[in-house]
Design a protein that fits this description.
The protein contains 7 helices and 8 strands; from the N terminus they run H-H-H-E-E-E-E-H-E-H-E-H-E-E-H. By secondary structure, it is an alpha+beta fold.
Length: about 200
C-alpha cells in the first residue's frame, strides 16, 4: 500500500482530461517533464529529477515478472537476454508517457525495445498504439503492474538492460528521446557499453 501511495504522489497519476488532449503537448513539440540537464545521478523515487539519468541501480537484475504480448502470449524480460534491451514503462492514461512515445519509438530503431503497459488490457492498448503507428517499440502488458511496483518506478520510466539482463541506467519522467543527449544514451545499447 505504501508503494502505491508513493507512486501516486510522485509519479504520473490518472488524468481527468482525455488522452487526446494530453497528446496535444507532443503535437506542439513539447515533452512534459523534460529535463534540461543531460545526465546526472539522482535518487530514485519522489526526489528524482524528471527526465534525468539515474545510474544508481546499475547492475540490478531485470525484473522477472510475467508479461504478455497483445495476443496474450506469456513472456518475461529474461526471454530477451543476449542483447541490450530498452524497456519503457507506460500507460495510456499517463500524459508524459504518451507525449514521449513517438520520439522514443523513432530513437529505438535498430534496438530491442519494449513498451510495457502498466495495468491495462490488450483491448485498450492495441487500438491506442495502432492509432500512433509505432514501428520500433514492441508492446507488452504488465497487467498486475508488477514491474513498476517492484522497482518501484513512476510512469514513465525507461530502463536500459545489458545482454545479461543487468540494469545500465534508468530515466524517470518524460524525455525528448530525439535530443543529442538521448541519442548518446541509447548508443550505449548499440555499442554494447555499460556507461563506464
Amino acid at each position: 500500500m505504501a508503494c502505491l501511495l508513493m507512486l501516486i504522489a510522485a509519479g504520473c497519476t490518472r488524468q481527468s482530461t482525455p488522452p487526446e488532449q494530453a497528446n496535444g503537448a507532443q503535437a506542439n513539440g513539447v515533452v512534459a517533464n523534460q529535463a534540461t540537464a543531460d545526465e546526472v545521478t539522482v535518487p530514485a523515487g519522489p526526489a528524482a529529477q524528471a527526465g534525468a539519468v539515474d545510474r544508481s541501480h546499475r547492475g540490478m537484475a531485470a525484473p522477472t515478472s510475467r508479461l504478455v504480448d497483445l495476443d496474450g502470449k506469456p513472456m518475461t524480460l529474461a526471454d530477451l537476454r543476449g542483447k541490450p534491451v530498452l524497456v519503457n514503462l507506460w500507460a495510456t492514461w499517463c500524459a508524459p508517457c504518451v507525449a514521449e512515445l513517438p520520439s522514443l519509438d523513432r530513437a529505438a530503431a535498430g534496438l530491442t525495445a519494449v513498451a510495457v503497459d502498466q495495468g491495462e488490457a490488450a483491448g485498450k492498448v492495441r487500438p491506442f498504439l495502432a492509432a500512433r503507428k509505432l514501428a520500433h517499440l514492441r508492446p507488452l502488458i504488465d497487467a498486475d503492474m508488477a514491474i513498476s511496483m517492484g522497482l518501484p518506478a513512476n510512469l514513465p520510466t525507461t530502463l536500459l538492460y545489458d545482454g545479461e539482463g543487468k540494469e545500465i541506467w534508468r530515466v524517470s519522467g518524460g524525455r525528448d528521446w530525439s535530443s543529442a543527449e538521448s541519442r548518446a544514451l541509447l548508443a550505449e545499447a548499440s555499442a554494447g557499453r555499460s556507461g563506464s
